[in-house]
Amino acid sequence: MDFIRELQKELVDLKDFPKFGAGDTVTVSYKIKEGNKERIQQFQGVVLQRRGSGSTETFTVRKMSGNIGVERIFPISSPFIEDIVVNKRGAVRRARIFYFRGLTGKAARIKEKRSFSH
């Protein structure tokens, strides 16, 4: 098992993304190829979870599109992820906030974590 991890460290280069976790609102900029064209699309939503470690780590982002909830799972080491911007830090007590799927309207708001920067 250690041989596989060492090989992954050598082959996969991890980008330096900001620290984020469950409850944070993030904007993920990722590349989309359509035919021979390539463009960058933003996916902004709330992080439900981060799972895995190292190069195999993934995170799930949920957004509302119209009245429909859309979730997308991003591998952290994906070459298609251009940038991750943390818009808001959410104050949640859990590492995986799947209960968020069942909430709508005002109940689906997440309190913002207050930062004390003097």
Secondary structure class reads mainly beta
Report the CATH C-level class: Mainly Beta
Biggest β-sheet strands, sense, barrel? 5 strands, antiparallel
Number of strands: 5
Query: Roughly what is the average pLDDT, rounded to an integer?
Result: 88
Compressed to H and E, one letter per element, the order equals: HEEEEE
Supply the number of helical segments. 1
Structural descriptors:
118 residues, mainly beta, SH3 type barrels, 5-stranded antiparallel sheet, 1 helix, 5 strands
Explain the overall architecture.
- The chain is mainly beta and 118 residues long.
- The protein has one domain: SH3 type barrels (Roll), CATH 2.30.30.790.
- Helices cover 8% and strands 42% of the residues.
- The protein is built from one helix and five strands, in the order αβββββ.
- A five-stranded antiparallel β-sheet has the order 4-3-2-1-5, with no helix packed on it.
- Strand 3 and strand 4 form a beta hairpin.
- The longest helix has 10 residues.
